[in-house]
Amino acid sequence: MSAGVCDLTLDPKSFRTIADLAYRESGLTLVEEKASMIQSRLRPRLRMLGLRDFAQYSAFVGSDAGTDERKQLISALTTNVTHFFRENHHFKTLEKVIDARLPELRAGKRMRIWSAGCSNGQEAYSAAMTLLERCPKAAEYDLRILATDIDPQVVSFARRGSYAARLMDGVSETLRKTYFDRGTGGQEPMFTAKPELKNLIHFNELNLLAPWPMRGSFDVIFCRNVVIYFDLATQTGLWPRFLKALRPDGHLFLGHSERIAAPESLGFCTDGPTSYRPLTS
Ligand SMILES: C[S@@+](CC[C@H](N)C(=O)[O-])C[C@H]1O[C@@H](n2cnc3c(N)ncnc32)[C@H](O)[C@@H]1O
């Protein structure tokens, strides 16, 4: 290659290095059929870093100096598609859970919800709106939502809680008026979650494959449209951890195309589509 000429084609050896790294770091399973998508998502990183080809990039991202770049890599490779009240039947179940927990909440007991793989936050804000609709005094109770994601960029977006009008589909006019402040963005109106909504949610970075620092158990865990990017071994490793993190009468919600294979053998029973509960003996 002559000096100054770049070749931004993802070669098979670099693909393997990057795929192995992504798997080790985050559980993402990258298949060769997706090589051109991976190439186009990572090209801006090579340009940003002034690297000439993927061989240089894969060497850098795997090196000791590449710690920060590994986060950028995962961020570029993860799929962050989400929207408010996605797979709404889970929020209908959440309404019932809240109603059932109200006496405990009034008696000072805690209720915890976890949006695991929260992306840009719409899942957590949808849960917060559901809580406030059923329980307007939520702030007075020991009632909180934890929202986590491996990708620091989506976590800071979610924490800001500002959504362009086109991202607000699924939030009714009444809910918009009640829980969001309307402002102006560049081209279109922006809706920013009001403090009463934001204050219910704690956003944090968390890799689901790393140890979970949370203490106490969750009433409801949303882990939807996350494990679909993991292989069976990684998924199977997660189920017992979710079981341990749930209250004995808790709920685990998965995405529409995700399933726990043989749930009973792992201590779960099925409780509606993509909804699981710990088996009670
Ligand atoms: C498609 S979004 C799903 C968002 C939301 N749960 C929903 O269903 O609309 C998948 C999210 O999982 C996150 N993710 C992928 N691997 C992860 C891991 N190992 N630990 C935590 N989050 C992860 C991605 O960063 C992404 O934001």
Architecture overview:
By secondary structure, the protein is α/β, with parallel strands linked by helices. It has 2 domains: 12-77, Orthogonal Bundle (Chemotaxis Receptor Methyltransferase Cher, domain 1), CATH 1.10.155; 89-278, 3-Layer(aba) Sandwich (Rossmann fold). Helix content is 41%, strand content 20%. It contains 10 helices and 10 strands. The chain has helices spanning 12-26, 35-49, 54-61, 67-77, 89-106, 122-134, 152-160, 173-179, 195-198, 232-245, and strands at 110-116, 142-149, 162-164, 180-184, 189-193, 201-205, 218-223, 246-254, 268-270, 275-278. The strands form 2 sheets. Strands 6-2-1-7-8-10-9 form a 7-stranded mixed sheet. The chain has a 3-stranded antiparallel sheet with strand order 3-5-4. Strand 9 (268-270) and strand 10 form a beta hairpin. The longest helix is centred in the middle third of the chain and has 18 residues, at 89-106. The protein is globular and about 70 Å long. The structure holds S-adenosylmethionine. S-adenosylmethionine binds next to loops. The site of S-adenosylmethionine (SAM) has 24 residues, from loops. InterPro entries: Bact_Chemotaxis_MeTrfase, Chemotaxis_MeTrfase_CheR, CheR_C, CheR_MeTrfase, CheR_N, CheR_N_sf, SAM-dependent_MTases_sf.
Keywords for this entry:
281 residues, alpha/beta, Chemotaxis Receptor Methyltransferase Cher, domain 1, Rossmann fold, 2 domains, seven-stranded mixed sheet, three-stranded antiparallel sheet, 10 helices, 41% helix, 20% strand, binds S-adenosylmethionine, transferase
